[in-house]
Amino acid sequence: MRLKTSIWVSAYLRRCQSAGVFGAISHRGAEEAGAVFIKVALMDRTAQLYVPAPQAVYDDSRPFERLFVSAWPQPIAEFEVDERLRKELRFDPDAWIVETEDKQGRHFLDLAREQP
């Protein structure tokens, strides 16, 4: 059974805080199973966005973990990330948006392995 999204988000924010990274929920989604989008602001008006990994990348031995992929190979203008998040919320109002600020761009997420 997968951990409730609200609990996962709380744990993620504690993990960020313990590393000295500010993080906050900018949109609270469905408590049980909302998708989570992580915005990492780099403090230079650019940001990176991490989105839920496609189901095809999940390992059958660990189907309940949360994996993410980067939406873009490099950070982009923060306003473009914000626009993408607005579109995501129009499509899925149950999604969670978590924003962090870190000049180093640390995200503290489990990333999906690249598909060959």
Describe this structure in words.
This is DUF1491 family protein. Pfam families: DUF1491. InterPro entries: DUF1491. With 116 residues, the chain is an alpha+beta fold. The protein contains 2 helices and 6 strands; from the N terminus they run H-E-E-E-E-E-H-E. It has helices spanning 5-18, 78-91; strands at 22-27, 36-41, 46-52, 68-70, 76-77, 96-101. Strands 1, 2, 3, 4, 5 and 6 form a 6-stranded mixed beta sheet that branches. The longest helix has 14 residues, at 5-18. It is globular and about 35 Å long.
Taking the sheet with the most strands, its summary is: 6 strands, mixed
Number of helices: 2
Fraction of residues in H or I helices: 10-25%
Mean pLDDT: 90
Choose one word for the global shape: globular
Task: Considering the chains and any ligands shown, give keywords for the structure.
globular, 6-stranded mixed beta sheet, alpha+beta, 6 strands, 116 residues
Topology:
Blueprint: H1 5-18, E1 22-27, E2 36-41, E3 46-52, E4 68-70, E5 76-77, H2 78-91, E6 96-101
Parallel strand pairs: 2-6
Antiparallel strand pairs: 1-6, 2-3, 3-4, 3-5
Protein name: DUF1491 family protein
Pfam family, one: DUF1491
Give me a quick take on this structure.
This protein has two helices and six strands.
